Amino acid sequence: MSQPAQSSSGPPVNQISRRRAFLLFDEQQLMTLFIAGLFLWLALNWVETGLAVKRFFTTLPQWDYWAVIDHFDEYRHSNLRVFWEQHNEHRIVFPELCFAIDTLFLHAHQLLPLVCSYLSYLTSFALICRAVFQERRAGYAARLMACAVCGIIMGWQGSALVIGIPFLLQWTMLELSVVGALASLGSYQQSRNSKALYLAALCGVTANYSSANGMLLWIIILAVAAMLKVSQRDLLILCGVAAVSVSIFFIGYHRTASHNAFAFLTSPLDTYEFLASYLSSPFGVIHLGTGEMKRQGLMFGSLSLLLFAVMVWGFWKTRDLLSPAAIVLVGFSGFAILSGFATAAGRIDLLDSSFSGATATRYLTIPLTNWAVLACGLIWLSSRSRRPVALPVFLTLFAVLFSEWYFLRVEKSAWPKGTIDTFANQQWASLSVENDLITPEVKRILDVSDPNVDKHLRILRENRLSVFDNGENQRLGKSLKTVRVDVPIPGKVVYTVPVEGGWELVGWDVAEERIKPEHLVFVDERDRLVGIGRKLTAGVPTDLLALTLPTPAAWIGFVNSRFDSKGVRAYVWGRRHQILIPIGGYVERPEIVRISANRVGVPIKAESEGNASGWIKNLTPLGKLNTNPPPGDFYSSWVESDASTGELRSGTFETPADGCVTLGTLHGPNTDRLRASLLDADTGQILAELPMHSHGDPWSYWQIPVHSGIRRLKIEGVDGGSSWGEWLALSQPMRCK
Questions:
Q1: Whole-number Cα distances in Å, 513 to 110, 481, 508, 558, 574
Q2: Which of 378, 370, 374 is nearest to 394 (CA)?
Q3: What whole-number distance in Å separates Cα of residue 100 and Cα of residue 71?
Q4: What is this structure's pTM?
Q5: Where are the beta strands (DSSP E) in 4-45?
Q6: I need a labelling partner for 386 at 20 to 30 A (CA). Which of 128, 354, 662, 673 fits?
Q7: Which of the 8 DSSP states describes residue 690?
Q8: Interacting residues of 632 by C-beta distance below 8 A, sequence separation 6+
Q9: Distance in angstroms (rounded) separating the CA atoms of residues 437 and 455
Q10: Strand, coil or helix: what is 715?
């Protein structure tokens, strides 16, 4: 029997098999490289977030954290009532416990709350990944991709806007408690061990007393427990713990002024728009403060709700709704929605058309994690589809590329910049406090009321806490004559400005990393250390960016006037404070002195009429006039908008007998094209240029010495800019007290 002839139209069968095997192996390699790249991306994001938290860090308490310093004596005397004090609408028992430990044992450096916040957030991500991997009905590669995308989104460095503020530990601790409770319920689904339910209950209590929003977690815990058909005994225990936990919360509770539950219930459309804005963060906040922000918030928030519905439907259709992955992913997303409703009940303002209260940076981590959870769940579900490889890869690529593209847009928007500039201003204020300069600007930035600031700082100083623990402040006034001076390095002081009680210096240097150029000192003509300087890791405050300054090399420092120094030289500490490295030359003390409003004298009458072309009398932008205004009249270049410009030339007036004149200035944040000067009226010579650097403080008052022989004076003001924030107001000349 003859054999059929082999076709010559193609390669042998064994060659085809080898080619298919080669292609299959190549696809596996590509998948491995793809997933490895995702996890490298994930790691870089979390490292960047950690570095951002480090950059934003300020040792001195800020804002609400001053309440912790107020509780210092109660901590020392083990007064447990302090942990029950209500903060706004929350009881923050567990975060307060962390604050107390940091204050009592770690000198109130706030490092423990920062570390706990970062680790809480990171652990939340780890627990989400654990739940995803517990359910093996999804493909291994899809589970890896789902976890990687979740980590990339959660690890966005914008989360440092929450993690970098120690007092906001309540939100990351709340998030960890929510994920921990859901993960415990997922473990119970597999093991049927009652201990997992008790752990979920413990997490519920922790959430309850980390933030008031945590009470909503009990709704999800009890609903999931009922769906899992736990024993009647265990369900009664969970209900009992929930009832006791919530009931105790309201013992001694009082409603806060911001509580708007009535508006929340009576305006369902506004409530939905608020909820959508809350869930849209951070994607819906690019156009902050505009009508476009509301539209984007509504669009992204509605998309979030739609994806939640798709995820629930997908888990239900695949009969995985009670799997560990679904319990955590659907449960957390459901909690985020409930949290949005709770935030609306407490923060909705029907007069705020853009619902900016929903997108405050302090709320960021929960909506951000919600986006991560939605992406993770959809990728997990896609591996159960008819395209178990191609669809997860497509969704992964889309999720990471879209989110990173939008993250870049958000980072360039005004939404995070305001908070980042706040960090820079806080570091500036902390440095001022280290130099014993407590000015109105410092009080405003630290958010400490006048009656309490001295008390709080006294507590820090007497107990060597916070900025008073490092010893740098203790060296002020000490002689450095015996310290060896090394070779100078490139750099100089480019700007000096008076502040109340001293003066501020701004400069730059290119010191090598080994000598820690962020630590500077200022030494006067008697070799005394009279000021401390530093490179602000959060960046240069906005009002200093107008200076000709190499920002990465910039530093800021202060000199205290109590030392009566005629001038200073700037030095960098080197070799563990064993040598001084000079920067630039000798800098003389500014002749102009910054004073407080209560040291302003009576107005001086002009001998002749002036010219105020384009200026208006006694008018400034709303809200600027009511804080420490001058005793007499003033003129402003702000005429209904920032776009107005013009020049002011006052009438001439006689030089006071004591040779001292006081002038008041008020201006917008953009000072590039603003100028205010005191001139010799007879010769036109400029005697003094008034500083335009006041950290956004209201009226600033300047005492200007006038040399003998100058008989008559006049004031000149110029507003040459029509951009936002470019306006200037000048007071009448006043005598010095």
A1: 26, 25, 14, 23, 10
A2: 378
A3: 8
A4: 0.86
A5: none
A6: 128
A7: P
A8: 602, 603, 731, 732, 734
A9: 15
A10: strand
**pLDDT score at 574:** 77
Distance CA 682, CA 693 (A): 29
> What was the pLDDT predicted at 511?
64
Q: How many CB atoms lie within 10 A of CB 328?
A: 30
Reduced to 3 states (helix: H, G, I; strand: E, B; else coil), residue 659 is coil
pLDDT for position 549: 63
Residue range 312-353, pLDDT digits in tens: 999 999 888 999 999 999 999 999 999 998 888 877 776 666
What are the DSSP calls for 401-452, one per residue?
Answer: HHHHHHHHHHHTSHHHHHHHHHHHHHHHHHHHHHTT---HHHHHHHT--HHH
**Peptide bond between residue 488 and the one before it cis (omega within 30 degrees of 0):** no
Q: Is residue 404 pLDDT above 60, yes or no?
A: yes
Looking up tokens 């936990």, which residue turns up? 245
For range 196-218, the mean pLDDT: 95
pLDDT tens for 463-496 read 999 988 877 788 899 999 988 888 888 888 888 8
Q: How many CA atoms lie within 13 A of 603 on its CB side?
A: 13
β-pairing verdict for 554-560 and 529-534: antiparallel
The pair phi, psi for residue 591, each rounded to 5°, is: -75, -35
Q: Angle, to 10 degrees, between the axis of helix 13-56 and the axis of helix 390-411?
A: 30
* Residue 364 dihedral angles phi and psi, to the nearest 5°: -60, -45
Whether the per-residue pLDDT at 64 is higher than 80: the answer is yes
> Rounded distance, CA 587 to CA 600, Å?
28
How many whole angstroms separate alpha carbon 58 and alpha carbon 426?
A: 7
Confidence of residue 13 (pLDDT cuts 50, 70, 90): very low
b/e map 212-231, b = 16+ CB within 10 Å:
bbbbbbbebbbebbeebebe
115, pLDDT greater than 90: yes
Contact present, 592 and 498 (Cβ < 8 Å)? yes
pLDDT digits (tens, 9 = 90+) for 617-630: 888 876 555 567 88
Distances (CA, A) of 725 to 18, 385, 719: 71, 55, 11
Confidence of residue 609 (pLDDT cuts 50, 70, 90): confident
Q: What residues are paired with 34 via a beta bridge?
A: none
Are 571 and 583 in contact by the 8 Å Cβ rule? The answer is yes
- Cβ atoms of 160 and 299 within 8 Å: the answer is no
Distances (CA, A) of 650 to 604, 622, 634: 12, 25, 11
Task: Indicate the helix (H) or strand (E) that contains 529.
Answer: strand 529-534
115-131 burial, b at 16+ Cβ within 10 Å, e below that, comes to: bbbbebbbebbebbbbb
SS3 217: helix
Nearest of 243, 137, 131, 269 to residue 187 by alpha carbon? 131
